[in-house]
Write the structure tokens for this entry.
Amino acid sequence: MNLFRSEEHIERWLDGRAPGATIPVAKLTELAHAWWHDRISAEWRPHTREQNQAILEGLGLTGAFWRLP
Amino acid sequence: MDQRDLELRNLTYGLFVELGRAPTVREVAERAHAARDDVEAAWRRLHDAHALVLNPATTELRMANPFSAVPTAYRVQASGRWWYANCAWDAFGVCAALYVDGRIETSCPDCGEPIAVEVRDERPDDERLLFHCLVPAAHWWDDIVFT
């Protein structure tokens, strides 16, 4: 789960491996805030799989790659 | 996850932020007025529940996601401290968890060139950057350190 300067850098880094998923950093920031915002709250409770899947889907991260087990 | 494990998990995270580093079993036990063995057993259950990550061979914390207990390629300046995050996602997660702006420093895994991103009001200041996730979500926890 890394940051890159461009698609060209990702392709070179993959070096023939099958790519995963690439999203813009602005989308990643939204995802991070939705996913982690409650993590140090004293009221924190474990997220359910359904809650986490809903976070992904709410940001348009759908399809087999983003399907949680 | 029972109520006691939840309390110890939340205390562990609270101490991580208070200390600016991973707390030890002893520190959590002292703060919780609990026996070290009880904290270790709780941490193992929390590890199995993916609520934190222990080193495989010890009872030391490896991750209290999004925070990393060990140095990584993702450094985050936030709340007056430098933190290590487990990955790019977690680096932004440190700012999110602390509810603060911050600065993320890393390097491009391809070319090694430094990358620095300021996070202001939940937005990155350089929107040209890309995030690549190699492992599908179904397998993130198969090997969370690799993921």
User: Anything to note?
Assistant: The beta strands of chain B are 53-54, 61-64, 67-68, 74-78, 81-85, 102-107, 114-120, 123-124, 130-133. The mean pLDDT of chain B is 95. Helices of chain B lie at 3-19, 25-32, 36-48, 88-98.
